[in-house]
Structures are given as structure tokens and as C-alpha cells.
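Q: I have 568 residues here and want to know how they pack in 3D. Can you give me a structure?
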Amino acid sequence: MLIGLCLGLLLGLLSPTAQSRQVLEFDAKTQPVPLADWGDYWIDPQARLTAEQVASHPRLDWQPTLPKGIYPLQPRQALWIRFTVPPAPDAERWLLEIPYPALDRASLYSLDRADQWREQRAGDLTAVNQWPTPHRHPLLTVDFNAEEPTQYMLRLENVQGFSAPIRFVSSGHVLRGEQQVSLFLGVYFGLALLGCAVGLAGALWLRDRAYLYYALCATLIGLTQAAITGVAALHLWPDAPAWADRSLVVLGTWMLMALLLLNDTLVSLAQRSRFLHGLVWATVLAGAALSVILLITDSALRIPLVVPYLVLAQLLMLGLNLWAWRRGDRFGGWLLLCSLPFALSLALAIGRYLQWLPLSVLTEQAALACMALQMPAMLVVLMVRSQQQRENKRRIQGLDRVDPSTGLINDSVFAERMERMIARSDRLKHQGAVLMIDLVNTEHIQREFGRKAAQDLPLRVAERLLSTARDIDSAARLSEQRFGMLVEGPFSAEEAATLGPRIVARCLMPYKGLPVECVAQVRVAYALVPRQGPNAEIVLGRLAQRLAGTPAASKRAVFMLPDYLASA
């Protein structure tokens, strides 16, 4: 008989049901305290039983609670968890914490002195102002008895299933944790608000639609993260439980719509591909219709409706950026890099809501961290794009004043500046210099070195003129083979005499990438103003006449006009 008793005890110890379970011990030094497997759970398939019926039912299939917290809860079912709190002093106020802001309903039942089950309720379907402890996620008060254990039953309802840890924390621990979280969230929402302000300012100042989309993205990303973290339900709509229950899926849909429009605008999709641009707008309109459906549909249908749209919209955004990058768009690659971390965080969030992954710091805060990095990166792309657009507009507006092939000012601007220089020199009683430079060996270069070398030669001359001119001087292209230069005074005749030979010598120096013999031969005629003429037209006419009168075989390269006033 003794042997049989020992065998029975051994078999009992080895059986799964007799394995030791974690003891629930409230220790303020090791917080949070997880429920782990200390409790038991049972799923009510019709979600009809009350706390009294569950507590008194003799044949319910209770199972030990799961340490990872992923329960097979389906829509329109209720998860019941019973646990016993051991005796403990009431020096510290303890709370049952469920770090799941999107939870539909959490009810904690405890027996009062009249043996009646008293309920505390929290969750999206209850206004936050009516929670026992208004917070970003459910916090329910745990009362202690210093002499006897206290029994509790927790009822949970959620259409997306339930996969969050259940733990116990003291009020002091909650306060310290919220101070740290508030600092982080404050910085994040400050960045979102700054992004919105910058976007609106850019839209008004630059008249750029991309900045308006960026402002919309920053606002919706901030609101979506406020809904994810529970800040929105706590501070923005604490008395609107119906909207709090729907806000996350609706705001998430709007956020992806705005991101699609922003990416479409940044890669100029309307000008590159009408088909893809139309596909983006079709996706946006589908998202608008979906958001209306999400507002009026039943809770159990929202996740099956919104998850396919989130996946398709994110894949479309990645595909657009990849398409633009492969076709040489300067911003497509950067936008693709910005979108990849967000796509990964969105995949983690979807896996979390589909109960493929448990609630953790990674699944809960990955999207928040990725968006905090994505929006400043996209703002940098937006600002670089705006700068390049402004430069392009300046170039287009300056085509009537600048020679497009060399970047030098044209003949009309040269004449305007020359008139001002003559007037300035006359007023200040000093002299400036005007030079006219002709390129004379283009035909020889084309015969000897080819057409491309002859076409590049004026560009080489323009580079040498710019390197010779000072910052206050002006160089211009007056015609196909003719250039001009204005040299600001005060300027002496001796100094002017060195200008022409210096330009000729600079042009005869070898050019990088060309044969040594492929150099520019130029002739220079110069004059001092205002003594060479009363206006620019007369001076330029005399300079052109002097160069035209030089024989082609002449080896002389520099000519100075005689004093106009003295000859007059």
C-alpha cells in the first residue's frame, strides 16, 4: 500500500495539471508584476453569462492563463479570467493594468461585503471619463485584504482578439512611467505639430501642393499615433466612446491616403505616368469610401475590411517609389528608403492586431518610432525639391537675360550694364574699360579636331573670361563667336593695356581633355569709357568696326580705340 501511494504521488507530480504555477506576489521593487499563469481563463462562446453565473457554474473548462497573453478570442465572445490576490498590506494602491489602448471592454469583478459582484469597467466602448482611473489604457483598482485572499474575475471583449499582457502595478509606478512616456510623446506630437505648421507655411508661401499634403500627413500621423497610444481617447474625445472605438482604423486609412498623395506629388507622377497617377487617385477614392463604411459598420467587420486596404496601399506606395527610382527620379530612392521602415512597422502592427504577434515594445512602438524618423526625412526631401524647383524657375526666368550655353549675360543685358557703368564713371570722374573679344579660329578647329571640339570652344573661352574677370566685372556673349567684358574702374590707360594680352594668353593656354594644339585664338578690341563715347551703342559700334576692319591674315591680336573726345 505504501508503494502504491508513492507511485500515485510521483504520477501526480509529473502530470501537467499538477505542475507548480507562478505565485502572485506584489513586490513594489519588481514592477510590473505579471499575472503569468497564476490565474485561469475560460472563453464564453456567446458572451452571455454574468459574473454570478460564471462564478457558480460547476462545469466550466478553466485553463491556466497563458504567459504570452495570446488568447483564441473570437468576435462576439467573452474572455473570463479568474485569479486570487493573496493577503497583503494596503500601504500601496495597486492597479490591474492592461496595456492595450484599443481594447473594446474590460470589466473587473470583485465581491463586496454583501457577497455581490461589484464591477469596474474600462475600454473603448466606455467613455474614458467614466473609467475608475482615466488613463491611456485600462487601469482597474485592485483592493486588498490584509487577512484573507481576495477573488477577482476579469471579463474582456475585443473584436480583434486579445493578445496583451495582464499585469499589476502600483500607483507610484504608473505615475513614474507616465512621466517618461509623456516626455517621449510630447516630443513626438511637438514634431508632428511643427511638421503641420511648416507644411501649411510652405503651401501658402510657395504655392506648392506637396506642402499641403505634407501638413495633412503630419496631422493625420499625429492623430493616428494619439489613437494608438490612447492619448486621443484620454484628452481629445474622452466623452465619445463610439468614435474612440472607430478612430484608429479611420485615421489610419486617411493617413495612408495622404501619404499616397504626397508621394505621388513628390515624384511628379501626373507628368510621368497617367496610368499610375490615376491608380493612386482610384486608391485614394476607395479609401475615402472605405472610411465611411468603417464609420457605420459593425466592429467585427472593420479589421477584415481595413487590413487588405492598408496592405495594398502600402505596397502601391513602395511600388511607386521603386518605379520612380528605377527611372532616374532624384527623389524616388530617398522616398523608398523613408517608406521601408514604415512598411515594416505597419506589418508588425497588422500582425499584432491579427494576433499573429503578442503585444510588445516592438509591435506597439515600432510604428511610432518609424514615423518619428520618416516625417523629418520626408521634410528634407520636400525642402530639397522646393529649392531645386526655385532654381529651375530662376533659370527659366533668366533665359531672356543669360546665354543658355555658356551662362554669360547676353548682349541686351551687357548694353544695360555698360550704360550704367558709363554713367557711374562719369559721375565719379574715373575710367572703366570695355572689351570686345572675337573667336577667330573656329573653322580651323573644326577641320583639324572635329565638329564637337569646335562647338565646345566657345564654352572654353567663356570659362577663361570668367576666370579673368573680377567679381565686380561682367562677361557676356554678344553673338556666336563674339564676347564682351566690362571692367569697373577706377582704371588707368596703363592697366587697360595689359588686359587684352592677358586674355589672349589665357585663351591660348591648353584646355583639359583637348589636344595641346586645340586652343582658342582671339582678337581683342578695348576702349576706355566714358572718354570713348557718350553711350554704349556708339562705343560697341566702334569696337565692332575696329575688329571687322582687321585683315584675316593679320597676326596682331589686341587693338585699342583712340580717345573719342580727343579725336572729336
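Q: Anything worth noting?
A: The radius of gyration is 40 Å. The CA atoms of residues 361 and 527 lie 78 Å apart.
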